[in-house]
Amino acid sequence: MANSPQAKKRARQSEDRRQLNAGQRSEMRTYLKNTQKALTAKNPELALEEFKRATAAVDRLAHKGKIHKNKAARHKSRLIKKIKALSVQAS
Questions:
Q1: SS3 67
Q2: pLDDT tens digits, residue range 40-49?
Q3: What are phi and psi of 9, to 5 degrees?
Q4: CA–CA separation, 59 and 77 (whole Å)
Q5: What is the pTM of this model?
Q6: pLDDT in tens, 18-58
């Protein structure tokens, strides 16, 4: 356990940041799941709307370094690919 005052402060800060990061990652996952649900429901308009929210969340975390930029790109790429396929299928 931390003994010095500055070590105690760092421990507090680390825990606060860990909880904040966990919440932000959870929010991102929720947006991704909402997009996936819209795709499963075969609703391209709703999927595109949810994709915009998910993209904003993913980009925000990637910019802050909370997730890797390639992970962000992978999520966006896979989702837009499915949305385009659904749009073509619906047409």
A1: coil
A2: 999 999 999 9
A3: -65, -45
A4: 12
A5: 0.87
A6: 999 999 999 999 999 999 999 999 999 999 999 999 999 99
